Structures are given as C-alpha cells and as structure tokens.
C-alpha cells in the first residue's frame, strides 16, 4: 500500500543512512585518535582495564628511576670498597716488607699511616646523593616492584641492601643495660674446651631506642684477653650486631678461632645466633656483655693502630691484623657487587615488563589503521548509495500524483 503520510521506504533508507554515518564517525575517530577505545563510552570494560594498566606503567617508570638511583648509590659504595681493598693490599705489602730485620720500619710506618688516611678519605667520600653505605649500620630499602594480585590488591616490593661499615674510628659507648629485644646471651668467662663451641644468641624483636639512636648501647665479646665491641646504631638489627661482632673477631686473627653466623630474614620474630668455634689446641674463655661502657667502631676499627715500627712483635701482629681487615673489605665489596647485580637485573626486568604492558595496552585500545582505512572506503561508498536510496524513496509520494491525472 502506498501512502502520502507514511513512507516506509524512506524511513528504512534513512535508518540505514544513519547507521552508515555512525560507522563513519566511529572509523573517523579511530583514524584521528589512533585508538579504537578512546574513552569509556567506546568500551567500558576495556577502558577500565587499559586505564589501570596505564597507571601501572607510569608507576613502573617511577620504580625504574628508584632502581637507577639505588644502583648508582650501591655502585659508588662498591667502587669505594674495592678501592679500600686495593689500598689494604698495598698496606699488606708494606707490612710484609716490615717483617725483615734490616729495614727502616719508621719509613714503612709513615707509608702505612698515609694509606690509613687515604682509606678514611675514601670511606668518608663514598656517598651518592648524601647516602653513604660505608658508614653506620642497618640497611636501605630500594623500591623495586609494584605487585598487583588477582583481586586487584596492590603492594610494593623493595630490595634491601645492608650497609658495610668500613669506618676505622672508634667511639665510646655508654653503659646502658640491654634487656628484651636485642639482649645478648650473658656469659661470664665461660670455659670453652678445645674442639668445643659456644653459641651466642641475640634475642628477637625490634631493638629499643636505647640500643640505637646515636650508639647509646654497645655489645662486647671477650675471647681470652682479646675484646671486640660494636655499637648499635639507628636502623640496626640483631643481624647487624652479630655480623659486626663476627667480623671484628675474625679481624683479631686468633689461631683456631672461627665464627659461624646465622642471619635471619626477620630478626623481629627470630633469634639471631653466632657460634664461636675453638680449635686453638687449648681451652679459651668467652665473656659477653651488653650495654658496657667501651669502645666500638666500624669494620676497619683498629686500622689506625697498625704498628710495624715499635718492634718485631708489633710488626708480626700487624700482619695478622691486616688479614682480617682485608677480608672485611673484600666481603664488603662482594656484598655490594651482589646487591648491585640484583638491582641491575631488576632494572632490566622492569624495562621488559613495562614494554610488555605497553604492548598489551596497545593491543586492547589501539586501532588497526589498515582495517580502519578499508572500512572508511567501504562506508563512504555505502553512504553515497544510502543517499541515493533515500532520494529514490522520497520521490515515491510524488509519483502518486500521476493517479489523479
């Protein structure tokens, strides 16, 4: 039935043309923006996913900056520790030469003192952006990752880098008794037979303020007549206390005396222990004190006391002492090297992860320009045909006039 009031053909042609125009607007938007999902209206779910991922990519770029800063900080410390190791090797050569009877030990001592000054200069200058990992105790945390689980909970991960104290200066430690967290096993001239061992425990928990913040408390271990001390500093844990006491005992160079250290992942919930092994050929006594008023220093404490000039005995003792100090510096350089390698590996991973996330976002929201171009050509042709069809449909009511002629 033909009607002058209702033109069904025109309505169909008009609706078809509207659909074609909507498609043209969509494909033109894709071509102009380069995205098939430019806003939430285009696809709410894809827009939400891609926006979250884009926020993560931006966060990972900040994490990459943090890792680069951390790598530089650790790299400076590693280079300084390696330089200290080299200087200690030079000092060892001088000490070895001082073992001869017919040498001028006073001149050798002068050279040794100059090397001590240079080592202190290197340690003091080993800072990056104000952070010196060769001084003090504790550790630094380097932001390394952004972790998102399946329930969209977000957390961060960090790489912990222990400071390696290579200071040689001694400091007086006040006598404040350490109880509870950080308390050391109390031993009073404990007899340890040849072939036996004595385990020392540092109580789990967070070190209280009296143990940190300016070295207000100290720890001492006496083996026979030799005593080593360490002052807990701000940020230190029981791991730091035990490690420094072990290094100081090793530096004594006592024949047959070795120390086994067991560090833990969380000293606040697990005791830290170290074991003093006696294979000296005779009995020894071990005394431990916490909160004693004594002297404490860094890993190279006693370096300034190296004496090759006074006598053959002091020269011999200097040779024994330098071995422990050299090992401390080597261990520090190795620790920093391992930490820097881990950080550099994380930098590479974050870079690859960022690239993968960016590719994933692109797959979700980027337009296929080749497909869009082909579709544009097709829709333009359909648009022209739609206009023609609408024009023809609009002419149908006029044809009804012929019936009245």
What key attributes describe this structure?
13 strands; elongated; three-stranded antiparallel sheet; 19% strand; 405 residues; alpha+beta; 6 helices; four-stranded antiparallel sheet
Intertermini distance: 19 Å
Rg (C-alpha, Å):
38 Å
With helices defined by DSSP (H or I, 4 residues minimum), what is the helix count? 6
Structure class: alpha+beta
Order of helices and strands: HHHEEEEEEEEEHEEEEHH
Overall pLDDT: 83
Approximate strand percentage: 15-25%
Largest sheet: 4 strands, antiparallel
The low-pLDDT segments are 209-216
Task: Give the % helix.
Answer: 40-55%
Q: What spatial order of strands do you see in the largest sheet? A: 6-12-8-9
Task: Tell how many strands the DSSP assignment holds.
Answer: 13
Task: Based on Cα principal axes, name the global outline.
Answer: elongated
Description:
The chain is α+β, with helices and mostly antiparallel strands. The chain has a domain at about 180-295. It is about 50% helix and about 20% strand. The chain is built from 6 helices and 13 strands. The protein has helices spanning about 10-35, 45-95, 105-125, 240-250, 310-365, 370-400; strands at about 125-130, 130, 140-150, 155-160, 170-175, 185-190, 195-200, 220-225, 225-230, 255-260, 270-280, 285-290, 295. Helix 4 packs antiparallel against helix 5.
